[in-house]
């Protein structure tokens, strides 16, 4: 069915089938039309494993598939590169491209299939729940860049930009709010294709994979650096404030000293003015007397 050369092989026993191009890096999503229906609340049939020497060989043996407990409906298991002969009355194939996560992105997997998982984020995380691999919910471990044969009816891979390529870890910690806004906008744009409204994207505290027995946690060291940087910035701001306070205090002391000397200074100025006035008066009187004597000594 899914050829590595990009062709669909003819089905055994089907005279009407013909080769069909499927393109490279494709997967086949199987829909089985026979057998018991899936369970209540399920949206996809579970994978049927071989046992006791019985195998359905990728849906090519309908009797073995039903004997092993296969269910009707869309199947979790997909077909990858290869040639398969399927009975078209038993099962049909929908060809899809593999999921590509480009470099610079990671894949956040939302699984609609599996057992109900327990939240692994802890009581301190309040922005949603994360579960382990193969459980229903948002998987804790993101997918790195690459190609994946993911069944889109069972798993939804959403992308968001890996900001670590353009920012260091300290920037990620200090600019978390800005990054969350960008991530919310990007995810909101992508989720609209699935009629999902993305309200907010929250970035939790980074965790290191390094065992505690191998030395200090590198994330904790980064937090220590961040705290030291913030302390230095606070100390710098405090020093500037202290300088401003010292300048203002000096200006205040000068103003107080000037105010204390203002009364004597004013009195001194008054005394100077009075003395100057007396001197001018005495000079004027002396001139008047001298003029009088001159006039008396030379009668006309």
Descriptive report:
With 300 residues, the chain is an alpha+beta fold. The protein has four helices and eleven strands; from the N terminus they run E-E-E-H-E-E-E-E-E-E-E-E-H-H-H. Helices cover 36% and strands 17% of the residues. The strands form four sheets. The protein has a four-stranded mixed sheet. The N and C termini lie far apart (153 Å). Residues 3-21 have low confidence and may be disordered.
What is the secondary structure topology, with strand pairs?
Layout: E1 7-8, E2 20-21, E3 26-32, H1 62-67, E4 73-79, E5 91-97, E6 99-101, E7 105-111, E8 115-116, E9 135-138, E10 146-148, E11 155-161, H2 169-174, H3 176-191, H4 218-297
Parallel strand pairs: 8-9
Antiparallel strand pairs: 1-2, 3-4, 3-5, 6-10, 7-9, 7-11
In spatial order, strands of the major sheet run: 8-9-7-11
Spans of at least 5 consecutive residues whose pLDDT stays below 50 are 3-21
Distance between the termini: 153 Å
Shape: rod-shaped
Output the structural class.
Answer: alpha+beta
Helix and strand sequence: EEEHEEEEEEEEHHH
Largest sheet: 4 strands, mixed
Global mean pLDDT? 78
How big is the Rg? Answer: 45 Å
> What is the number of beta strands?
11
- Give the helix tally: 4
Strand content: 15-25%
Helix fraction, binned, reads 25-40%
């Amino acid at each position: 069915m899914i050829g590595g050369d990009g062709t669909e092989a003819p089905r055994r026993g089907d005279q009407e089938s013909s080769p069909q191009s499927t393109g490279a890096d494709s997967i086949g999503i199987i829909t089985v039309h026979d057998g018991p229906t899936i369970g209540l609340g399920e949206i996809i049939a579970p994978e049927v494993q071989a046992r006791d020497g019985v195998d359905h060989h990728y849906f090519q043996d309908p009797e073995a598939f039903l004997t092993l407990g296969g269910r009707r409906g869309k199947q979790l298991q997909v077909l990858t590169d290869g040639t398969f002969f399927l009975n078209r009355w038993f099962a049909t194939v929908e060809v899809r491209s593999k999921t590509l996560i480009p470099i610079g992105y990671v894949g956040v997997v939302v699984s609609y299939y599996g057992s109900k998982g327990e939240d692994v984020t802890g009581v301190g995380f309040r922005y949603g729940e994360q579960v382990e691999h193969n459980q229903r919910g948002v998987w804790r471990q993101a997918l790195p860049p690459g190609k994946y044969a993911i069944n889109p009816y069972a798993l939804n891979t959403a992308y968001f930009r890996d900001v670590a390529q353009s920012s260091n870890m300290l920037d990620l910690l200090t600019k978390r709010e800005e990054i969350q806004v960008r991530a919310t906008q990007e995810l909101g744009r992508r989720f609209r294709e699935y009629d999902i409204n993305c309200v907010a994207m929250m970035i939790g505290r980074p965790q290191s994979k390094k065992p505690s027995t191998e030395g200090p946690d590198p994330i904790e060291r980064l937090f220590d650096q961040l705290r030291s940087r913030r302390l230095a910035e606070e100390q710098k701001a405090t020093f500037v404030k202290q300088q401003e306070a010292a300048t203002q205090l000096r200006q205040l002391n000068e103003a107080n000293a000037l105010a204390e000397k203002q009364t004597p200074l004013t009195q001194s100025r008054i005394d100077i003015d009075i003395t100057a006035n007396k001197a001018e008066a005495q000079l004027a009187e002396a001139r008047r007397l001298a003029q009088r004597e001159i006039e008396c000594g030379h009668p006309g």
